[in-house]
Hints:
By secondary structure, the protein is of the alpha+beta class.
Amino acid sequence: MPEVWAVDVPAEIARMAEHVARLTADETRRAARFHHDADRHHFVIGRSTRRTLLARRLDVDPATLVFVEGRHGKPQLGSHAGSAPRFNSSHSGRWVLHALAEVEVGVDVEEIRPDFARLDDFLWVLAPEERAVVQAATPALRAAALATVWVRKEAYVKALGEGLSRSLPDIAIVADEHGPALAYDHNPGKNETIWRFMDLEIDRAYKSCLAHAGPPLEVSVRTWPP
Ligand SMILES: CC(C)(COP(=O)(O)OP(=O)(O)OC[C@H]1O[C@@H](n2cnc3c(N)ncnc32)[C@H](O)[C@@H]1OP(=O)(O)O)[C@@H](O)C(=O)NCCC(=O)NCCS
């Protein structure tokens, strides 16, 4: 069953020493290079909790996990081949989300920012169908509508592992009474995978979405610590 873990970063700062102790030497060096404490906290807590959750799912020592990156930077497990779960992470504001599953996953979380309401700045990333949904929202709900559309799109390109190298206006994810679904992706390259989307309820000030491959699955949404 796919799991999504929500890590409340400010709540974890009190346990910073424990998180730092779980980093590799390379991660410790990277953590030291952040100029802003907030970025460093996200990095350290994100890496520590991800390692812990994956090791727990595999029932192995966290120190044995080796990470590698795909062509566009998507982290994957390079160790424990065969049994390795798929995973993906996202950061925004106070939250780090980790999605873990037996199938390919992408996850995105985004704070609903008031400037999202200045729609014109963001229209270029949307497909016409998505633009229509956001423009139909009342002004008070427009920022939330844009965040909803945006996290679905990001979850999808992150599941593919291609991130923003894919043209976003050429992808439409539209919701009907059964929930969000991929209407089309006109980017080059054949992709036979069926992707499922689940809007997640983490925090009323944020929107988040999980995309996973294959048949519909029940998703367990949990709050760190395990
Ligand atoms: C992946 C990407 C969409 C992240 O977007 P974001 O909203 O800024 O960041 P999020 O917090 O949601 O996600 C970041 C996490 O995604 C994961 N990630 C990185 N590259 C990824 C990729 N190609 N696919 C899926 N996940 C990726 C990482 O785990 C990262 O967190 P970490 O560095 O702490 O491990 C974006 O950075 C991207 O497209 N990268 C690919 C590189 C690229 O093609 N750049 C084109 C420049 S426009």
